[in-house]
Amino acid sequence: MLALHELQQRFATAVLGEDDSGFERAIHAAGLTGAQRLQVYRNNTRLGLTGALAAVYPVVQQLVGEGFFHYAAAQYITRYPSRSGNLHEFGGPFATFLETFEPAAGLSYLPDVARLEWAYHEVFHAAHHAPLDLCALAAVPAERQGELRFQLHPAARLLESSFPILCIWQAHQNVDHDHPPVRLDDGGIKLMVFRHENLDIEFQSLPDGEFRLLYALATGCNFATACEQAISAQPGFDLPASFRRHVLQGALTAFYLPDTSSSIHDHP
């Protein structure tokens, strides 16, 4: 008799269609053969996972059509099976998958549209966070401010694309109304997807300096380095005004000095 863990592993592999070892013989089901019962599980699993992908990527599905999307989803499910009991976590690598999915090779903008939809999905489900402690920030000595490291809000994502992905997304939000045609050569975009305290999700188009400032902070750079990168990306950029705006709107939620113990000003 198989141990429970081995039985579960083999069942999962068989359901995803990767097992030719005859696992169906271990299934006993009244009225159906083991192979038939296994096919029921396979169909239900694939339908559920395909539905989860379609819920996250409605614009991608509109762009390629339902039939193409379901074909792509079937290939994706095989290569990137769900690893979590929470379906909200399923579909993260879909953009990466589309980059190497040969039937979509002519749609070079599609992976970035998928990244935008996944960012929206993550922001929608992200945790709440208390605002940054302004009094504690003001108390940091001036000579140490360049060492500060900041934390981006859990409900904020930064995206950069060489395609007008926001225009593409917006054009597919209400298919009953005419929208101006989107030209792929209209240029790219740098933006932040951000959920406000009232739960509204906003797409904020960012100039080069502002995007570089936030991206540098989000990836662990200290404040001095982030400021240098922002000014390098956009000379003359109004850094104080930009930083103040993102602090006040809550995009930056916590800070710390790396070499000072118990210095994290983070209030989950």
Tell me what you see in this structure.
With 268 residues, the chain is mainly alpha-helical. The chain has helices at 4-15, 34-56, 58-64, 66-79, 94-99, 110-125, 134-138, 165-171, 208-218, 223-233, 239-249; strands at 149-152, 156-161, 189-195, 201-205, 252-256. The chain has two domains: 1-107, no CATH class; 111-268. Helix content is 46%, strand content 10%. Strand 3 and strand 4 (201-205) form a beta hairpin. Helix 3 runs antiparallel to helix 6, helix 6 (110-125) packs across helix 8 (165-171) and helix 9 runs antiparallel to helix 10 (223-233). The chain is globular.
Order of helices and strands: HHHHHHHEEHEEHHHE
Structural class designation: mainly alpha
Q: How many separate domains make up the residues? A: 2
Strand order, main sheet: write it out.
2-3-4
Give the overall shape, derived from the CA principal axes: globular
**Tally of helical runs:** 11
Rg: 23 Å
Major sheet attributes: 3 strands, antiparallel
Helix content: 40-55%
Low-confidence stretches: none
Q: Summarize model confidence as the mean pLDDT.
A: 88
Determine the strand fraction and express it as a percent band. Answer: 5-15%
**Tally of strands:** 5
In short:
The protein is mostly helical. The chain has eleven helices and five strands, in the order H-H-H-H-H-H-H-E-E-H-E-E-H-H-H-E.
Keywords:
5 strands, 11 helices, mainly alpha, single chain, 268 residues, globular, 2 domains, two-stranded antiparallel ribbon
